[in-house]
Structure formats: C-alpha cells, structure tokens
Amino acid sequence: MQRRGFLAGLMAGGAVCAAGNAFGYEVTKSDAEWKALLSPAAYDVLRHEGTEAPFTSPLNNEHRKGVFACAGCKLDLFDSGTKFDSGTGWPSFWKPLPKAVEEISDRSLFMVRTKVSCRRCGGHLGHVFDDGPKPTGLRYCMNGVAMTFKVA
C-alpha cells in the first residue's frame, strides 16, 4: 500500500469515528450537540474520556433504591442493589444491567485496563477492575458525572 493511500484511509476512518457512527451506536450526536446537551464536566468524561476528581460526586452518597443511568442518553446502566463503597472516591458497582455497557481494552497511561462505555451512545463511564466483592469479584469504578440517578 502506498503511503498516500494509507494516510487517506486513516483520515477517512477518523472522520467516521468523529461522527460517532463507526461503532453503530443507537444514539449519535455531533460534538457540538453533545457539548450543548451535557455539563462541561459530563462532556469531558463522556465524550473525551476525562476523569472526575475522586470524592466529588454526589452519587457516592446515593443509597436509595433505583437505577443509575447514562447522563448522555439516559440508558439504565446499574441497579442500586449492585452499588458498594469501594473507598476509591467513585461510585462502584459489582455488576451492570444486562446489555447496558461495553468493555474495551485500554492500554493508555502505561497500563492495561478495561474501559467501560455506554452501549447505546458510546459515552465513557469509567473502568472495571477485578478487585470487587462477591458474587462477581468485579469493581465497575464509574465517574458519577457520567451518570444520573432515577429513584425506584
């Protein structure tokens, strides 16, 4: 393959990814639409894989029965019955709702982690680790600003 063809292919692929259609998400918006819809902090986390400061989310102290949903597209993500206090400063869960999230290998920051995103809009939520409680042994460490809470 010639270098020019390779670079053109990369640019075309980048344009598709920027449009949000590369992965076939049900909810897609332009970057400007996401920016207008979300708070600056939620926009940074959901659309640019930022991280909120630990111990700053009001959802850390949310203990009512209900559902935690994506702040971008409102998809239900986690049942409150799976939430636990991990002591990390971010809302943590031991299991997502069925077909709510997608998990993708993340090799950024010189480590291997598993990134967790909303299945419907592709918004970045956080990461999952294997140091959680039973029954799954998993800790879905989520950015609270990327979610909303709906009381049952």
Written account of the structure:
The protein has 152 residues and is α+β, with helices and mostly antiparallel strands. It has a single domain (26-151), classed as Metal Binding Protein, Guanine Nucleotide Exchange Factor, Chain A (Beta Complex), CATH 2.170.150.20. 22% of the residues lie in helices and 26% in strands. The chain is built from 3 helices and 9 strands. It has helices spanning 3-19, 31-37, 40-48; strands at 66-70, 76-79, 83-84, 92-93, 101-106, 113-118, 124-129, 139-142, 147-151. It has a 6-stranded antiparallel sheet with strand order 3-4-8-7-6-5. The chain has a 3-stranded antiparallel sheet with strand order 2-1-9, with no helix packed on it. β3 (83-84) and β4 form a beta hairpin. The chain is globular, with a radius of gyration of 17 Å. Mean pLDDT is 87; it is low at 1-21.
